[in-house]
Amino acid sequence: MNDDARETLDPRIDSPGREGLTGTTAANAYRPLHDAEQVTIAPDWRPMDEQPAWRTDFPIDWPQDHYVERRDFTKFMVLTSLAFTVGQFWIAVKDWMEKGDGTRPLTRLASVEDIRVGTAQTFAYPTEHDPCILIRPDERTFLAYSQKCTHLSCAVVPDVEHGVIRCPCHEGKFDLASGRSLAGPPRRPLSIVRLEVRGNDIFAAGVEERTV
Amino acid sequence: MSINRPFTRGQRATIVNGMLAFVMMLVILQLWLLTATMNAYLGGDESLVWPAAAASLACLLLNAGLLRYLYQIERTRR
After folding, report:
1. Total count of domains within chain A
2. Is the pTM of this model over 0.80?
3. A110 forms bridges with which residues in the sheet?
4. For B38, which residue in chain A has the nearest alpha carbon?
5. Is residue B17 part of a domain?
6. Helix (H, G, I), strand (E, B) or coil at B45
7. What is the pLDDT at residue A2?
8. What is the tens place of the pLDDT at every residue in A143-174?
9. How far apart are CA B22 and CA B18, in angstroms?
């Protein structure tokens, strides 16, 4: 028996498929032509499984549309997950490539007389791309920090009189004595440059990065 | 004998919703992991860089596995 009701029905009462029926309509006349869940019908009447992918991705009924949008959003989220993983490995590889023997060169910065009490001077350590500040808050104390703000790497400016180091970009404020953040957007303290005073000279002997 | 019947659309919608919730949780975990690792790395703490990368990779593999399952139930429909 032909299931396709779109074809012309056999009008005879005793035609196959009508046995026992009192009406004149064939038993298969109201049988669904397609899957009951599949509301979207392509213009060529072929089943959706035989349609090109772009047509299945643009359904016209809401349930199928909801399914497709959630499925595609899930795909996008997995792509985002991949991006985060690549980011993680980028950090790891960067860390691995930067890992040297761990020692920093001992570099002479200045002599004690070069820096007056209550003033500061800049220097680059350990490379020329790492600007730092050397501060002399009192007669016997020398402090050195990275000059890069831990928020967005703006150059910080020491305010010895008020005991703070300021970042002019976003009003960040660090404690002069410890380099820890006091106010503004930066959370991490400034990196400390370890100093050694040998005789009359001041040397940089390493960098200490901190999270708190 | 097991009957390998394809999921109905309603069932597939439930599966994809649950899957999406799980994937979202993992992605948010990865985002937190990335920011925490970046903060630690910039602060000089390099000890957790590789473990964090491994954890992120595990999350990605879980997500990829779920997506693979989604493709699988799409295939059985046909």
Report:
1. 1
2. no
3. A202
4. A91
5. yes
6. coil
7. 47
8. 999 999 999 999 999 999 999 999 999 999 99
9. 6
- If you count residue pairs, one on A and one on B, with CB atoms under 8 Å apart, how many are there? 109
Find the domain containing A201 and state its range: 107-208
Count of structural domains, chain B: 1
Mutant choice from A50, A77, A153 vs B, greatest count of B C-beta within 10 A: A77
Cβ–Cβ contact B25 with A under 8 A: no
Calculate ∠ Cα A154-A160-A165, nearest 5°. Answer: 25
Distance of CA A89 to the CA centre of its chain: 13
**Which tokens go with A81?**
């997950």
- Asked whether residue A93 is domain-assigned, the answer is no
Phi, psi of B20 (to 5 degrees): -65, -40
Closest by CA to A90, choosing from B65, B67, B50, is: B50
Assigned domain for B36 exists: yes
Tell me what pLDDT residue B46 has.
Answer: 85
Given a cut of 80, is residue A62 above it in pLDDT? yes
Reduced DSSP (H G I as helix, E B as strand, rest coil) percent helix, strand, coil of chain B, to 5: 80, 0, 20
In a domain, B3, yes or no: no
For residue A181, give the CATH number of its domain: 2.102.10.10
E-assigned strand segments in chain A: 107-111, 119-124, 131-138, 141-146, 157-159, 164-167, 172-175, 181-183, 192-198, 201-208
Does residue B49 carry a pLDDT above 90?
yes
Task: Decide if B2 is inside a domain.
Answer: no
Q: Which of B25, B3, B8, B22 is nearest to B73 (CA)?
A: B8
Establish whether the linkage from the previous residue to A126 is cis, with ω within 30° of 0: yes
